[in-house]
Amino acid sequence: MKIKFLMLFIVSLSLCACESLSTRDRMKDPVISLNSVEFTEIAFTGADGLCRITVENPYPVTIPFPRIDWELFIADSVLTTGAIDGGTANIKAKNAAIVDVPFHVDYADLYNTIASVRDVSASGAKETDFKIMLTAEFDLPVLGEKKLPFEVEGKLPLLQAPRFSGMALSIEAIDFTGVTLKCSFDMENPNAFEIPFPKIDWNYSVDNNSFIKSGVEDAAPLAAHSISPVAIYVEVKYADLYRSFQTPLAAGEADGVLTLTSGLAAIPAFADETQSHNLAGKIPLLKPPSIRFTGITVRNVNIFEGILAGNSKIDFTIGFEVENKNSFAITLDSLAYTLTVNGSQWMADAAPNKMTIKIKPNQTVVMPINATINTLALAREIGALVASRKANVPYVCEGGVTLTGDISGLESLVLPFNATGVTRF
């Protein structure tokens, strides 16, 4: 009788355990739902994302935490995979757990693996679709193993290469030694994160021959969503130009091409990409005007008569001839000089401050400068020279002329001159 009662008690306990997962409970599955999906960090090397899901336990008993395997698909191709092992963790009865599924997208791996994504990025697309396929594997009491699939979709920000715009080549400065060219452009970073400044090599060619090479390195990174103005200066020295290419001095200009080549080695996804830009333009070969002293003409001598009146003087005209050898007009603003005749200094700095004499391209003008000397001793000397009718009187005329030109970048220049010879009165 006691044995029968014990058997009935064991059977009763067994039935109670089975009833903990009733038929209705057995027909339920754990529920998986999306909590959120976002990118926690994005840089030019890649993006870190976090997919957060909720796992609900519908049973009246505790269940082990599931193992979660996942695959990241982009353009129907598997880019990366991962797994989360719950270990000894459990989900309590009629409760839920939040599961974080971290994933990483390496842009270099993405662009090198899936050509279509690289193409859409190059065309200006800012994002592409991605999909995460998850499989949660449960080891349930009584029910055994159960696998539940779950799918998450989202948008992946794409990496975009920096862009050149507004490229222009102009003359920054010019003088008789050479010309400085300015290449200006804007460098745009269309990304929502900072990227390294691309390495830029440049080569300036004259008449299809490489002349100067250099580059831009170690520039500041490009800030997110920024447009940075960039300027590159190229100094062309006429002496080097003529020596290197035998460019004829008679030529008024030379053909030049500035080639910019940018490399993105610092950005792994674009490490094998380069961009080239050619900027063509003519550079003027500025030639200094020739200045010649044409002589001295005495207009009026008043020495002895002026002694009694106290105004001994001599009026004369100094002649200068200026030839503009350039293909553009130049303007003479002022002329400073010292005139020494027969060993005596006659005059210094006698020219007007502002002459504004404009000389057209490839033309010559004669500048007569009227002067008067009131020094009695010098007036007597000049009178003696005139009276002697000396045929050849040595002179030295030296100084500088200030000029400007009708060409961009040409600021006020002082052209020195030194003319020696003989003249007659």
Which CATH first-tier class of the largest domain would you pick? Mainly Beta
Instruction: Indicate the radius of gyration in whole angstroms.
Output: 45 Å
> Number of helical runs?
7
Whole-number tally of structural domains: 3
Percentage beta strand: over 45%
Through-space gap between termini: 163 Å
Question: How would you sum up the major sheet?
Answer: 5 strands, antiparallel
The helix fraction, in percent, is 10-25%
CATH topology of the largest domain: Immunoglobulin-like
> Which CATH architecture of the largest domain is right?
Sandwich
Going by helix content, strand content and strand pairing, the class is alpha+beta
Low-confidence stretches: 1-19
Number of strands: 24
The averaged pLDDT comes out at: 84
Which of globular, elongated, flat, extended, rod-shaped describes the shape?
A: rod-shaped
Verbal overview:
- 15% of the residues lie in helices and 55% in strands.
- It has 425 residues and is of the alpha+beta class.
- The chain folds into 3 domains: 28-157, Immunoglobulin-like (Sandwich), CATH 2.60.40; 163-284, Immunoglobulin-like; 290-423, Sandwich (Immunoglobulin-like).
- β4 (67-74) and β5 (77-84) form a beta hairpin.
